[in-house]
Amino acid sequence: MTRAVFVFALLLCFTDCEKKPKTTFAAEPTIIRDLNDIRKQGYITALLDNNSVSYFIYKGRPMGYEYELLKHLAKELRVDLKIKVISGIEEAIDKLNRGEGDIIAFPLTITKDRTEYVSFTNSFFNTWQVLVQRKPHGWRQLTSDDVEKNLLRNPHELIGKDVYVINGSSFKNRLENLSQEIGGQIIVHEDSANAETESLIRQVALGEIEYTVTDQMLALVNQLYYPDIDINTVLSLPQQIAWAVRSNSPSFRTSINDWLVQIKRDGTLKIMREKYFENPIFSTLLASSDYSSFRTEKLSPYDDQFKKGAAELGWDWRLIASIAFQESNFNPRTKSWVGAIGVMQVMPETGEYFGVTNLWDPKQNISVGVRFLKFLDDYWKKSVPEDGERMKFVLASYNVGLTHVIDAQKLTKKYGRKTDLWDDNVGYYLAQKSNPKYYRDALASAGYCRCDGPVWYVKQVLQRYEEYKIHIAG
User: Fold this and answer.
1) Are residues 387 and 457 both part of a single domain?
2) For 327-354, how does the pLDDT look when each residue is reduced to its tens digit (9 = 90+)?
3) Which of the listed residues 111, 254, 258, 260 has the most CB atoms within 10 Å of its CB?
């Protein structure tokens, strides 16, 4: 059955057979606080999910789709923004109705049941639930027809299959309804309360589980990280996505809806959607490198600058060159989606710290990059005396920010491993910072991080450095 036919079939057979669950949260507001009260207190408290789409920190800068939109909203209302990171929808509803937050800025699906507990804003956009499955081994060498033969497209094929979802999610309800519709049992496994949809997607990508379900918008982002997953099997009708406020905050809801009309009209919403859901995130960092061009005695037009910086650092210049290639492919005119500039992909804030404003000048850009590396190297000398190990700490800090690596070192000490070793020690706990068990630990002050990327970054820079040493004279 084609995707279009299946969606049409869903329109004919989809029924709301969910039973209203017993609530374990405050189902009604316990306080009164509307727009005037929010303006008097001077800030909005937003309840936000700490993930790689809604809200995260990159090189010390808070970012995310919901986060940037909230900043726009707060500016429009002339109030400050305070963030509270929460772990699930029920917790969010509970905190909202108890007055611990003023708005749930999740990508919430509008459902009949939820309208009994909260008041939804107008819809931001529509999405749908999709099946996440792994493409067949060697799929790049197969024809599209052969790839399709190895993928589940007909929902009936889910009968008897194990599908993993997050505990208490709407995905479980959809699969239970689907089992009724197709006349056979889908075996639904609810993961632990500490698990997240993104962690299940990663397990599918690694072949640890066969199937999970997620919203199409989150699936699109994760497909950029995991190109081996397929997300084209639709399992639901289009669903409206919105934010939510307390049911006794009508003026606040109206102000949000007025603002939403404005940002749809002026293109702000479209820009945010393209930035976070339609552009290849970190595509340069994740792309495989072609080493064929390195078989010469000159790596780039900037070799002299790399050598000068290496002398200041006491490093091999080819290592700095490897960092620069990882960051920008030696392109001095590139600017990342988060604002990093030039050969060394330096953030403007870092340039200002070192007194340099023209980061488009390759010499100045490389100089700032080297000085930042020196700053990081000096910092890690206090706790990582061995040069080779310290280099890994410096590289990871350059990529993801110092605070995330400090968090990882603290977690390493807590769990009894060696804080001055990278592989299987600090590097391991850095990679765990997308796991709620670790990033919600009080020691992890920087919070959530998709930190398997920085671990991969360290490995790739050092591997490429070894290639340079083979082909390029020091």
Assistant:
1) yes
2) 998 899 999 888 899 999 999 999 999 9
3) 260
